[in-house]
Please model this.
Amino acid sequence: MADKRNLAELQMEARNEPEAESSLNKVFLVFSDRNHVDYIENLKYHIQEVLKERKFQPVTLGGNIPSMKEYFTKLKEFINQSVLGIVILDGFRPNVILELGYLLAKGKPVICFITKGAEFCIKTLYGKKGEGSGLTSKQFTKDLRNPQIDLNCYLSDLKSYHLVIFPDRNNPVEIRAIVKEALDKQLADINQERTNMMRPEAKAIEIPENYDKLMHELYLAASGEKKLNEDKLKELITEIENLVINNNINLAPNYYLAALEAWQALALREKAEQYWKMLLTEAEKTIAIFEERKVSSFAASGYGVQGNAWYQLKDYDRALSTYQQAVELKPDLIEVWNNLGNTLHQLNRNEEAITAFNQAIELKPDYAEARYNLGNTLADLDRKEEAIVAYNQAIELKPDFFEAWYNLGCTLADLNRKKAAFQKAVELKPDDAKAWFNLGMTRFGLLNNPAKVKEAWQTAQKLSREQNNQALLEKIIFWLNKFDNPPKA
Model:
């Protein structure tokens, strides 16, 4: 019975702004995996949500790295690109110790979290059923205990760093508050690291007095925290470039990428064709600098930004080829794989889109947006059961994902489950007229609460008037009249 929102329309609303990485907002997360610490995913989820809320981009190594050589290559790359390391010490696995050591050796700001009563996970250091432990299988299972991590004994040297304890790992409100407070305390060090990452490559050069201040202002523009108009952004970049010319400084690649991201932030804010065309020009210049310097990973990010501009200009063929260039240079650009999938979907190359979304998910299993976009593509192919799985996975990862709840409601056949999905959608976004209308239609189909049907439709009617959505308003009035004046027997 529900009036299913046109999926293409909804997807455009959800995907109108391509996912964009920020070069100076990455936070490297270190943790033991769920096989060693069964509650780790819960801690990770709340930490990542706070990071996203604060406009940081959490990055993790993932579990599918085929060789130690590739592991160390990725570890070096991820840490070099991060402004902060967050280490969850629970479990205290070898990878946690190694990655923490690398962060400290590189001089990165670090926050270490540990839960009260956290244990060393020593059982999983042995083979199946305790092989090599010198214990019988029964002794290993019953008698061997994971010892608690004694902060004074094992982590006394870390106390000079930012070591934070979660008193209750099952209290999400408290966990998030503690993470926010820890980030606030480290903010000065994080901002200094951002500035360091945009400093000249030649360490011996004396840094001009106001260089750090100008670079921090550029970062704020790149992240969208500071809203500079076109003239102000040009003025800032000109001031920086005059400063480096006068002081014979060779700028770091991060500077050029931050400048490009500042232009992208302006285009995303203004939503005007002229700014996307301007971004194309800036991307072309920036990519040329990266290619001349032979820094392919930065060139790949430049192609990713250029692809976003083509996508916004609805030139999907050029967006496709540009995104493909990006992932060819750097196959682990997660957001670019997602944007590539969206572009293929726009071109009705849905099977290829599914492959791209799955690649993004393989690189980042907790990428809710990629799972949601996969669900949309599967729904368009009428593979509804697979779409429902994808939407549910997105919701599990991001419980407040309105679009996923809405499209789940559109895709479900069972009316009770449909009603639950739309009910959650209107809780998350109470001003969405179509969600209220579809909730009313679903309640109408169940025929068990007439007052609730009318309440939902009247809410939709009020919102449609306020939002000047005439097409929906006419539909709602039709159904309200039909409801108030049922046909006579």
